[in-house]
């Protein structure tokens, strides 16, 4: 059984003095535990909107989303919050660290909403996760004292500290140089593999896409699968030849959603 499923999902938003705008068109997607999936698409193709839906940060206009066999629309607000906080890990291009907190305190943040042993052992668990990403010696460092690669490692540790079953990474190496980005992505893939979590990466980088076992293209809100013998580098090359999507409006984000500042809407 799939862990996360999207069935005939569309996302449409109203516009002032204009017909409604459809961002996603009939998206079908099945994600199982341990999957390695890359999604490539030009700016305006709907990638961030799709990520928000997969992360239960927003709801589809039509179609359905299921998590662990349960329809997401039937989740209570508390259940949706629990799934987002416990079962789904988010990693973004911007590290979004709390500047007034140490590396350990940043990683502890999700555990403040945990219960039982995870809550009471939050400091130890945060330290162990930082050790796992190679920052055991930097637990007391403030974000301003860390390099870009180290800050992204802290962000990865924070997203993984509660043991999520799905990891959603939106251009996770976009703010890093090539060598550091490759190192960070290899680390993320290694940690996800060891826990059995599904890893979904949105990227323009063929080297990052190369780590995935499934490769999808999002074009004007329509999702298609690359052939099994297709190369990720070919997928990225195809996406670069696609025209930019029309439109200049920002996606109205649901509470907690993190929209891509560069993302435009597609008709």
TrEMBL record:
<keyword id="KW-0067">ATP-binding</keyword>
<dbReference type="Pfam" id="PF00005">
    <property type="entry name" value="ABC_tran"/>
</dbReference>
<dbReference type="GO" id="GO:0005524">
    <property type="term" value="F:ATP binding"/>
</dbReference>
<dbReference type="InterPro" id="IPR027417">
    <property type="entry name" value="P-loop_NTPase"/>
</dbReference>
<dbReference type="InterPro" id="IPR003439">
    <property type="entry name" value="ABC_transporter-like_ATP-bd"/>
</dbReference>
<dbReference type="GO" id="GO:0016887">
    <property type="term" value="F:ATP hydrolysis activity"/>
</dbReference>
<keyword id="KW-0547">Nucleotide-binding</keyword>
<protein>
    <submittedName>
        <fullName>Putative ABC transport system ATP-binding protein</fullName>
    </submittedName>
</protein>
<dbReference type="InterPro" id="IPR003593">
    <property type="entry name" value="AAA+_ATPase"/>
</dbReference>
<keyword id="KW-0813">Transport</keyword>
<dbReference type="GO" id="GO:0022857">
    <property type="term" value="F:transmembrane transporter activity"/>
</dbReference>
<dbReference type="InterPro" id="IPR017911">
    <property type="entry name" value="MacB-like_ATP-bd"/>
</dbReference>
<comment type="similarity">
    <text>Belongs to the ABC transporter superfamily.</text>
</comment>
<dbReference type="InterPro" id="IPR015854">
    <property type="entry name" value="ABC_transpr_LolD-like"/>
</dbReference>
<feature type="domain" description="ABC transporter">
    <location>
        <begin position="4"/>
        <end position="245"/>
    </location>
</feature>
<dbReference type="InterPro" id="IPR017871">
    <property type="entry name" value="ABC_transporter-like_CS"/>
</dbReference>
<dbReference type="GO" id="GO:0005886">
    <property type="term" value="C:plasma membrane"/>
</dbReference>
